[in-house]
Amino acid sequence: MGVACSNQTIPRKVLLTGPKGSGKTTLLYYWSMNTITETIPTESFNIETIKVDIGGQLLVWDVTDTARRRQFYHGTDAIVYVYAEDQNTTQAKVREDLITLLTDRDLQNLPLLLLTSKTDISGTPMEQSEETLNLSSVLSKRSYACAQITMTDTSTYDQALKKLIDLFYT
Ligand SMILES: Nc1nc2c(ncn2[C@@H]2O[C@H](COP(=O)(O)OP(=O)(O)OP(=O)(O)O)[C@@H](O)[C@H]2O)c(=O)[nH]1
Ligand SMILES: [Mg+2]
Fold first, then answer.
1. Does residue 21's CB lie within 6 angstroms of at least one atom of ligand 1?
2. Does the CB atom of residue 117 touch ligand 1 within 6 A?
């Protein structure tokens, strides 16, 4: 992947979550296999180990947005939240979900990567996303980064992975 990481043997646990159909599994399999694959809706979760340079590994849990999501939180080192604006996912719903997620006692103060997905469809300007979502209260004590991703330009997936790795060291 061409991403620098420290020489650690214990994989970092990453919780990859967000609304249904937002593109989480597409991203997970790209990070894992370096190719875009067809997906089916995730029933519960997917898990992949992603190797980064110099021996680092990420254990990424792709957990879809269900009432049972919480059982996957314990031991998480960083959160990746993927959302795409469409008829089913409004900014208000995303904000509400993010506040519930980020105020959970198992996830407080953990680094967050906030990804706006499917920008080939929505074209949401990323600079506005965290502001539009009005998340300052839950972002103030944590490292976070934002990015736009689209499966039509996989360099956006590579850049998102680099941002995730960087978050572990800020
Ligand atoms: N146009 C477009 N479609 C995308 C993009 N990313 C994913 N998709 C499509 O959106 C659909 C859902 O993608 P998934 O990766 O399965 O989404 P998910 O978030 O894992 O969905 P659940 O498992 O149901 O929560 C698939 O048909 C993908 O091919 C994108 O950037 N642009
Ligand atoms: Mg999925």
1. yes
2. yes
Hey, how many other C-beta atoms are within 10 angstroms of the C-beta on 15? 24
Confirm if 34 and 16 have CB atoms less than 8 A apart.
Answer: no
Question: Which residues span the domain enclosing 84?
Answer: 12-167
Radius of gyration of the chain (CA): 15
Q: What is the CATH number of the domain that holds 94?
A: 3.40.50.300
Counting other chains too, the contacts that 39-48 makes at CB distance below 8 Å and 24 or more residues apart are 44/68, 45/72
Residue 79 lies in a domain: yes
Ligand 1, atom 25: closest residue by C-alpha: 20
Instruction: Kindly state whether residue 23 falls inside one of the protein's structural domains.
Output: yes
- Cut 0.85: pTM above it: yes
pLDDT (tens digit per residue) in 75-84? 999 999 999 8
Average per-residue pLDDT in the chain?
Answer: 86
117 CA distance to ligand 2 middle (Å): 13
Q: Is the model's pLDDT at 74 over the cut of 60?
A: yes
